[in-house]
Design brief:
Layout (H helix, E strand, L loop, with lengths): L1 E9 L5 E5 L8 E3 L5 E9 L6 E6 L11 E4 L4
Antiparallel strand pairs: 1-2, 1-6, 2-5, 3-4, 4-5
Length: 76
């Protein structure tokens, strides 16, 4: 697993916004530090050198993931 960033916000639209170290392909699953799938990347926003990911959560109580690191299984 590769650490790609950190969840910084859970919006009123029920999506995560995460700071990312790199742009990630759409529909890429993201995981927590225990290898549990927590969401799917639905959009990449912001500048190329500091992108933000919009992630659709797949977990109960998504607000508890704010501030947590996120991972991908492999980076393409």
């Amino acid at each position: 697993m590769k650490n790609i960033g950190k969840i910084i916000h859970y919006t009123k639209y029920r999506v995560f916004v995460a700071e990312s170290r790199r742009a990630i392909s759409l529909n890429t699953p993201v995981y927590d530090d225990r290898k549990r799938k927590i969401g799917i990347v639905t959009d990449v926003i912001g500048p190329i050198n500091k992108p933000y990911l919009v992630i659709k959560p797949l977990v109960d109580k998504p607000e508890k993931y704010v501030g947590k690191d996120i991972y991908v299984l492999r980076v393409k």
